[in-house]
What we know:
Layout: E1 2-7, H1 18-26, E2 29-32, E3 50-53, H2 59-71, E4 76-80, H3 91-99, E5 103-107, H4 112-120, E6 133-137, H5 150-153, E7 159-163, H6 169-178, E8 186-191, E9 199-204, H7 208-214, E10 221-225
Parallel strand pairs: 1-4, 1-5, 2-3, 2-4, 6-7
Antiparallel strand pairs: 7-10, 8-9, 8-10
Amino acid sequence: MKIYFIGAGPGDPELITVKGLRLIEEADVILYADSLVNEQLFERRKRSAQLIKTAGMHLEEIVNVMVKNAKEGKKVIRVHTGDPAIYGAILEQISFLKKEEIEVEIIPGVSSVFAAAARLGTELTIPELTQTVILTRAEGRTPVPELEKLKDLAKHHCTVALFLSGTLTKKIVAEFLEAGWDERTPVAVVYKATWPDEKIVRTTLKNLDEAMKANGIRKHAMILAGWALDEQIYNRNYRSKLYDETFTHGYRKGVEIR
């Protein structure tokens, strides 16, 4: 017995992996987070396939449905938004399934953080500017470990991607400023990246809360902060070693400049 957890990607149905789409086409039972996953993904499913929406179900209900159908010999898939490894809440589901001796295979997907960067037309790691991206969330009803407070993570002054934090912008701004960030630091917010109603907002740390309110964004938002988000980045001469003609690596000998 095996159950597949599939990353559906950020919204655009064409951004699912080939393997993920094949499994959808083969599945007998499909459980999906209907508040987040684009239902166009299921247009190529078998006519006999059972579609089960899980937004209104609690953990035990979801797992019981998966276990029951898997034990009946059906091909069961669980479809998550983005990539299941990031805030996917799959660990708790897999723990139950392991107790039932049901094998699990995870099919990765395109995370909203990378879809957002693509829609912004930017690279999150810029040579000589920042080589680190922190994926995190602001602390709200769900606590974060003591050593992972946003004000402490922000002290690295790298690119920061904030999931599930659209209602906590005042807190975000306060913690970044406490970490020593310039209030002029570029921030980009991508609402429902790759969906038809996608919205992109470019602002600064100082104006983040106001910009979110003005655009009516409170959820489904990816917040990216840091100087890699500067719209003038392409007017500056940041160069990597990879394509530097003087840099020698395993595939090319560097040219000596005299």
